[in-house]
């Protein structure tokens, strides 16, 4: 993965901004999207204190269209906040954007890091032009337990149909996504199934060469 000073990278679902320092070192511009207002303000203040002047913080969700949506927040600052309904969660009305609407044709987007608790496919659908024109590297979480409909394979198929090849992280190893087995790698057996050594939820998709 090569990122130059002229590139844009995105942190979608930035939460507390743990990726942003390094992103700001890699790229010319960083766009961070965090729909929880207090977290967006927190990382905006942190970026200012650290003089990370190439970071823009957007207090917005990212999906397949622009407008507004309900955000369900289990607890203040929760990394599990989602645009999918969560029983008992606080509901916030927040701005929502698609990446194709947000970026003009002149912005070369080189990397999308996505952590959106089940809305991954909608994020990619809203970036169809960017995927086609700029061919960014995609680093994202994807978990069956967060999906209301369909499976994680729907996301894989969408990206593969657009000329991407995928891998998943297992321990310290990258394995082809063709070896991903939902029943094994995201088994929901046990009280804390997500801590099982075989549980895998991080994926890396890169554009095919040529």
Summed up, what is this model?
With 210 residues, this protein is α/β, with parallel strands linked by helices. It folds into 2 domains: 141 residues, Rossmann fold (3-Layer(aba) Sandwich), CATH 3.40.50.150; 67 residues, no CATH class. It is built from 7 helices and 11 strands.
Number of helices: 7
Number of strands: 11
Net shape: globular
Q: Which value, in Å, is the CA radius of gyration?
A: 17 Å
What is the CATH architecture term of the largest domain?
A: 3-Layer(aba) Sandwich
Would you tell me the overall average pLDDT? 94
Describe it for me?
The chain is built from seven helices and eleven strands. The model has no long low-confidence stretch (mean pLDDT 94). With 210 residues, the chain is of the alpha/beta class. The chain has helices at 20-26, 37-49, 99-102, 120-125, 128-133, 152-160, 182-185, and strands at residues 8-12, 29-33, 55-58, 61-62, 67-73, 90-97, 109-114, 137-141, 164-170, 173-176, 202-207. Helix 1 links the parallel strand 1 (8-12) and strand 2 (29-33). The protein has an eight-stranded mixed β-sheet, with helices on both faces. It folds into two domains: 1-141, Rossmann fold (3-Layer(aba) Sandwich), CATH 3.40.50.150; 144-210, no CATH class. The radius of gyration is 17 Å and the shape is globular.
């Amino acid at each position: 993965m090569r990122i130059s000073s002229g590139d844009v990278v995105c942190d979608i679902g930035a939460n507390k901004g743990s990726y942003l320092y390094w992103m700001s070192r890699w790229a010319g511009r960083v766009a961070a999207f965090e729909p929880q207002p207090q977290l967006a303000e927190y990382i905006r203040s942190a970026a200012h204190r650290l003089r990370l002047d190439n970071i823009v913080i957007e207090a917005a969700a990212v999906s397949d269209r622009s407008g507004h949506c309900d955000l369900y927040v289990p607890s203040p600052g929760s990394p599990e906040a989602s645009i999918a309904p969560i029983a008992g969660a606080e509901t916030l009305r927040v701005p929502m954007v698609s990446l194709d609407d947000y970026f003009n044709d002149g912005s070369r987007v080189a990397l999308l890091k996505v952590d959106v608790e089940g809305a991954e496919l909608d994020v990619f659908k809203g970036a169809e032009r960017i995927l086609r024109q700029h061919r960014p590297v995609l680093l994202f979480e994807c978990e069956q337990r967060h999906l209301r409909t369909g499976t994680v394979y729907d996301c894989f198929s969408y990206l593969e149909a657009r000329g991407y090849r995928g891998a998943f992280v297992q321990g310290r190893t990258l394995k082809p996504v063709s070896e991903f087995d939902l029943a094994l790698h995201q088994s929901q057996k046990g009280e804390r199934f997500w801590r099982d050594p075989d549980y895998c939820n991080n994926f890396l998709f890169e554009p095919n060469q040529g």
